[in-house]
Every structure is written in structure tokens, then in C-alpha cells.
Design a protein that fits this description.
Layout: H1 3-8, H2 29-32, E1 35-37, H3 40-53, E2 55-63, E3 71-78, E4 83-86, H4 95-101, E5 107-110, H5 114-124, E6 131-133, H6 134-139, H7 149-157, H8 177-188, H9 190-204, H10 207-221, H11 242-262, H12 266-269, H13 272-281, H14 286-290, H15 297-316, H16 332-353, H17 357-360, H18 363-374, H19 388-402
Parallel strand pairs: 1-4, 2-5, 5-6
Antiparallel strand pairs: 2-3, 3-4
Helix pairs in contact: 5-10, 11-13, 11-15, 16-18, 16-19, 18-19
């Protein structure tokens, strides 16, 4: 049974994608069942089929509650003929599928795929690609900024998708019939969606716009940060001197490595606030650490020697090894006034293009642009306002700021 037939079960509107079919086809429950892949030989055969198909729909189910790394529970794939459920818990070698994910001749179609890309990148090493994100594509066609898969299936095909297994335990075996049905539906319409959305994007001349977004999402979702770079995610770093920044870098790098090694969430090791308090108080001894407000004796016993050693070493580190203090940001009130001045331009441009304002220019991008202009940067447009956005909105915003 092909994916169009499976989608047809969810709505008669699907018939318009298959003009040779004059009336709905009766489909049995057995026909709807996807191919379950639980042994290495079947996976190799399936992956050979995927490579010949030229495009596959992909989704994942994973759990990330008590671990650092996501625990992959299921991989769903649709090709032009059927749907497949790949069971990573039953397989000893997922490398054939990893090869498909990085095969440039096979388009990977997903919906809202940032988390899926991150999870799958642990299999591939390199980011999966090329990709087509149906949520992003739909946003360029008037379906809202973050249209859900169920909503989009209904709008395009009249397909009713269930949500009953959204928070299911995907690590438990055997999977229930409801889980199997839900998992299959999550990829069944992806390839038809991609074909229809691509056709509409070409008509509007916006396919290249969407492809820019796919590339940006693929890059950002699989960006590999070194442990020493984790502290850069925090705001207000300009308030610390270089030695404090060096200490912050080292403390957060220690937690990052420990969390990875033990495969635990960062917060299970210690909270961000605790590490930042260590930067402020700089405890050199176990006694210093014990005297800090909010520090429990169990924390001192478990990590005290390591953390005080990190503090002592950071206090003695050569000046040339310390990070540079970031430039102080412009006055927030001035930035706020300028950002408010730009909001109408974004709204008017979004309305003229028929696009959500968030897609045209996010608030964060506008703030970054404003701060770059106030700092006198030679090329103030941030990355997210480059590409199609530069002509659509970036140059307008820049011109307004320079008046």
C-alpha cells in the first residue's frame, strides 16, 4: 500500500493528488499496518529501497527526561510505496540508515524538524541532509508561523490525525496498536505534503526562500558546541572581568563534560545559578564553599574538592588564556525605542507579503540589528536578516535606523 493510499484513509481530499483514482478505495486495517524493521537484514533491505526512492519522510520518537543524550525510541520513514517503523532498540547496526540520512541524492522530508535533526545527528556525525521542512514551507504559504502536522494535514488533505500517543512511552516494548498507528500517520502524508507545498512555493517564487530556511535550520539545529563554549549562552557577560569569565568557562565546561560522561541532565549535576554563585564568591577551600548560602553539605562532599581546585587554577591562569570581556551593549532604553520604531515596518512588510511577522523578522533579529548599528559595525545586518530577508526587509530596517 503506497503513502497516498494510506493518507486517503484519513480524508477524501487526498484523492486530488491521485487523479487516476475515481472513488475512495476500501482499505483494511491490515493494509494500514506499516512495515516493522527489527533486524539488521531487513534494515539493510529497507535502506536500499530508501536510496532508490529519491525522497523519504522521516520522524522520530525519543525520550529525554533523565538523560543528557536523547534516547531514540522509534524512527518512522515513508517512501513512495509504504511506511516503515525502524526499531533502534532491536537493531545492532543503524549505520545503513545513517548513510541514507547523509546521502545527498535522497531528500529528507520532515515537519518541525529541529529536534529530529539533533537526535539523528548522533547517528550520522554529520548533519542529515538535504532536508525539506513542511512546517517552514507552509509558513511561506499562509498556513501560520508554526502550523502543526495534524493541522496542516487537515488543511491540505482533509486528513484527521489523532494526538492520543503524543506523550507515549516510546521505549516500552511491545508497542501498542495505537502507538503503531500514530507513528505511521506521523510520516504518511509527508511526501504528498512536500510535493504540494513545493508546487505552490514555485508558483509564488518562494521555493528558494524556503530552502534558505531549511539550510539555516539544519545548520543551527546540529551546531556542535564545545564544553568550553557553553557559558557563552548566557547574557550579561560584559559585567564580568576576564578572570571571572575564565572561571565561568571552566566551571560550566566541567559540568558539561560530567553530564555527558554520566549521561545525565545538566541540572542533575548542578544548577546554572550555583555555578554562577561560585564565580561570584570564588571559594578557594572546602570551608569557603561550605560557608556559601544555599550550598548543601552533600554537594560539598561530592564536588567540593574538584570545584575548589577549578577556582584556584582559574585564579592563577595566565592572562593570555582568559576570554576577552564582551563589549557592553548599548543603552537598553535607546535600543527599545529604536526597535519600536521598526515594528510597523515589519508589520507592513509582512502584510504585503502575506507572511507571519515572526517569519519576516524575529524580535531578536531586530534587536541584534539595532545594537550593531549603535555599535557602529560596518556590516550591521545579522545573519538571520541576510539572504531573502535582506531584500524583503533587511535593507528597509537598516535605512530606517540610519535616518
Amino acid at each position: 500500500m503506497n503513502t497516498l493510499d494510506l493518507c486517503r484513509v484519513f480524508g477524501k481530499a487526498m484523492l486530488r493528488f491521485c487523479p487516476l483514482v475515481a472513488a475512495p478505495v476500501a482499505v483494511s486495517e491490515d493494509d494500514m499496518k506499516p512495515r516493522y524493521v527489527a533486524d539488521d537484514a531487513t534494515l539493510r533491505k529497507a535502506c536500499a529501497s530508501f536510496k532508490r526512492s529519491g525522497a523519504i519522510g522521516v520522524d522520530t520518537e525519543f525520550v529525554r527526561v533523565r538523560t543528557y543524550f536523547p534516547m531514540l525510541g522509534l524512527i518512522q520513514v515513508s517512501d513512495k510505496r509504504r511506511t516503515w517503523l525502524i526499531d533502534p532498540l532491536a537493531l545492532s547496526d543503524l549505520s545503513p540508515f545513517a548513510a541514507v540520512l547523509t546521502d545527498r541524492s535522497v531528500l529528507k522530508v520532515m515537519h518541525s524538524c529541529s529536534e529530529d535533526l539533533e537526535v539523528l545527528s548522533y547517528l550520522t556525525g554529520d548533519p542529515p541532509g538535504p532536508i525539506f521542512d513542511t512546517q517552514i514551507a507552509a509558513s511561506f504559504l499562509g498556513h501560520g508561523f508554526q502550523s502543526g502536522y495534524q493541522q496542516l494535514s487537515k488543511e491540505l488533505f482533509g486528513a484527521e490525525m489523532g494526538k492520543s500517543e503524543t506523550r507515549s512511552d516510546w521505549l516500552r516494548r511491545p508497542l501498542s496498536e495505537n502507538q503503531i498507528r500514530y507513528a505511521a500517520m506521523d510520516v504518511a502524508c509527508l511526501l504528498p505534503m512536500q510535493r504540494e507545498l513545493s508546487k505552490q512555493l514555485r508558483k509564488l517564487g518562494r521555493l528558494s526562500w524556503a530552502e534558505e530556511e531549511f539550510t539555516r535550520m539544519r545548520r543551527d539545529s546540529t551546531r556542535d558546541y564545545e564544553p568550553e563554549e557553553y557559558y557563552l549562552r548566557f547574557g550579561g557577560l560584559w559585567q564580568y572581568d576576564r578572570r571571572e569569565l575564565g572561571l565561568m568557562r571552566d566551571l560550566f565546561a566541567w559540568r558539561e563534560r560530567r553530564a555527558m560522561t554520566r549521561d545525565l541532565p545538566r541540572s542533575f549535576i548542578t544548577q546554572d545559578a550555583t555555578l554562577r554563585a561560585l564565580v561570584k564568591h570564588k571559594p578557594l577551600t572546602m570551608r569557603d564553599l561550605s560557608d556559601m548560602e544555599g550550598i548543601k553539605p552533600s554537594f560539598v562532599r561530592r564536588y567540593g574538592r574538584t570545584l575548589t581546585r577549578i577556582v584556584r587554577e582559574a585564579m592563577k591562569a595566565p592572562e593570555e588564556t582568559l576570554p576577552e570581556t564582551p563589549q557592553r551593549p548599548p543603552n537598553p532604553r535607546k535600543v527599545g525605542r529604536m526597535v519600536e520604531k521598526l515594528r510597523p515596518i515589519v508589520a507592513e512588510t509582512a502584510e504585503s507579503l502575506g507572511l507571519p511577522p515572526e517569519l519576516v523578522a524575529r524580535k531578536r533579529s531586530i534587536i541584534d540589528l539595532t545594537e550593531n548599528v549603535l555599535r557602529g559595525q560596518e556590516n550591521p545586518l545579522p545573519d538571520e536578516l541576510s539572504g531573502w530577508r535582506k531584500g524583503a526587509i533587511g535593507d528597509k530596517l537598516l535605512q530606517a535606523l540610519k535616518k
